[in-house]
Amino acid sequence: MADEASQVLLGSGLTVLSQPLMYVKVLVQVGYEPLPPTLGRNIFGRQVYQLPGLFAYAKHIVKVDGRAGLFKGLAPRLCSSAIGTVVHGKVLQVLCPLCAFVCSCWWVTPDRVLLSTTSREMVARSAATLITHPFHVITLRCMVQFIGRETKYSGTLSAFATIYREEGILGFFAGLVPRLLGDILSLWLCNMLAYLINTYALENGVSVTEMKSYSQAVTGFFASMLTYPFVLVSNLMAVNNCGLAGGLLPYAPTYSSWLDCWSQLHKEGNMSRGNSLFFRKVPAGKRYVWDERRFR
Questions:
Q1: Over 50: is that where the pLDDT of 206 sits?
Q2: 48 pairs with which residues across the strands?
Q3: Read out DSSP for 45-104?
Q4: Distance from the CA of 47 to the CA of which of 141, 243, 257, 291 falls in 20 to 30 A?
Q5: pLDDT at 294 (0 to 100)
Q6: pTM
Q7: Which of 129, 159, 135 is nearest to 243 (CA)?
Q8: Which domains does the chain have, with CATH numbers?
């Protein structure tokens, strides 16, 4: 219980600290650009037109809503973090004896241990994602309200009532499928790549042992980069056609499914939109529309 409580507190602290970053990221993902491009220099020193980065974007939010404005959607996100941590831990506790029994029935090999531990983690993460997704949807919609200056989702409990009244039960799970797929693919890619590197690319040794401890973090970074389109599509589907300006034209058409959203983003070349909040290039072949605060 003490370990679980410490994990919840740690997760809550990290959630609070990362809230401004996620807020800016979500608005960029939707396509909202309140500030026009400016002439700057890229990492090679060449003059190029760039979009405002994280700090300039956050400064604009503070100018409009004050410093507290950077923490819109924090309450449901904290609920999601705390509940997700508890569910994840409980599911692992239930699955540990089962995985131990399965391993005892087979000849234990490193690859079987990998499959067992990764499968257990996949089930735990998926259960946590499934249960906390309604809070994730509310978090995103609270943030996207900044675009149209709405107050439709002003509180967590009232947001639950609004979504249920307007969209029914399915409204709480908008964007769930691509989110689950992205999490599962990222987990397996991360663990498989780390296993291959630790087993075949590195030899035993003191310094190599230290390198192996970092391989999981490195492979996790690459896995998250490769599966980022699933995150983008999931977030867009969570706010699409929900009655907020950020989920309607001109920012987004009404998508028939997450596959339709994926297809549209792919055609527009926007599959990595919001992936980077620094050195943001102006989209090729598009012009900035001041009245709409976006590119088209």
A1: no
A2: 40
A3: S-EEEEE--HHHHHHHHHHHH-GGGGGTTHHHHHHHHHHHHHHHHHHHHHHHHHHHHHHH
A4: 291
A5: 83
A6: 0.91
A7: 159
A8: 1-268 (1.50.40.10)
